[in-house]
C-alpha cells in the first residue's frame, strides 16, 4: 500500500513539474472573465493528469503536453481568445449567456441602448408604417451586435460530397478476412471476422511508424492513407502489401484527431479536421486534393460517417461540445446535439440512413462502452460494447460492424452483428490488441493477403 502511495505522489509531482515547465499563466489583469479562465484552466490540468496516467511511453507524455497546450490557449483569455469570450468558440463561454437578461451586464447595457434608440426613432415617425418598419430594422441590426444574440447565415455554393450506400448481404463472419494495419507496422495482422484466425501480416513502408495517426479511406477500390505523424500532408496508397507515397499532397496538416471517409460511391475521400481545431475539409479524387466547405464547429476526434446518405460528424475532443453536423451540397448543416460531449468514437452509416457511434471518451466520465444511433434526427443509446474502447476504427461488411480499439482497458476488438432491419442482434468480443495502437487501418480483403 505504501509503495503504491509513493508511486502515486511521484506521478503527481512529475505532472505538476511538467505543467509548470510548459505553462506560463497570465500575469495581466485584463481578462474580462477571470472566473471562467480559472475554471477552464483547471479542467485542462485535470485532463492532462488523466491523460498522463494512461501513458506508457515518453511519446505519449509529449502528446499529453501538446493536448494541454491546445486546451490552455483555447480557454477564454488564452492566446486564441485574448478578449475573453468575444469571438471565442470554447463551450465554457456559453455559460455567460445563461440568464443573460439578468446576469450579463454587457448584454443588458447593449439591449437597453438598442431599445432606447428604437423608442426615440419611433417617436420621430409620422403616421407612416414604412418609418416604423425602418426603425425596427435598425433595432434588429443593433440588437444583432449584442453579446449572446445568435445570428444565422447561409451559403449557396455547391459541393459534390453527397453519396449513396450499397445494400449489404449477410456473410458468415468466419468467411470475412480483415487486414488490420497498426501504427507499429510489424504488429499488423490478418484476422477472420469471428476472431478464430489471426496471422501476422507483412506490410512494407518507408518506416515502421508510417501509418501512425494517419487516417484511411478507399478511393477507386484502393486503400489510401492521409497525413499522420511522419508527414502531415502525405497521401499514400497500398499497392499489394506496400505503401507507395503519391506526388499529390493535402492542403492542410492532417494527423492526430483528423478524420477521413470514402464518399461518392468510393471514387473520392473526404478528409477533415486536425489536432489544431481546424474546421477545414478537403476532397481527394485519386489525383489531387481540393478544399471544400468548412464545418461550423470544430470536430477533432469527432469521427466521420454517413447519416441520411451524407457525411456527418459529432462532438469534439478539444472543445468538448455536443454539436453534430452533416455536409450537404450547400455546406454543413446542424443536426440535433448528441446527449453527451462525446469524442474519440467510431462512426458507421447504415443502409436505413441512420448512423451508429461506437465507444469513445467523455470528459469527466472516462472511456465509453456505449453504442449510439441517430435515426430520423433522434439520438438513442441502443447497446453496449463488452468493454470500453476509443480512438479505434470500424468497418461495416456482411451485415456486421467490426470495431478495432485503439485505446482503453485491454484494447478490445468487437463484432456487432445486425439483423435484416439493422437492429443489434449480438455484440461479440473477437480479440484484443497487446498494446495501444491508435486508429488501426482496416481493409476487407482475401484470406491470404500479405502473409
UniProtKB/TrEMBL annotation:
Q: Which InterPro entries match?
A: Kelch-typ_b-propeller
Keywords, alphabetical: Signal
According to the UniProt entry, where is the signal peptide?
1-17
Lineage, top-rank taxon, reads: Eukaryota
Q: What is this protein called?
A: Uncharacterized protein
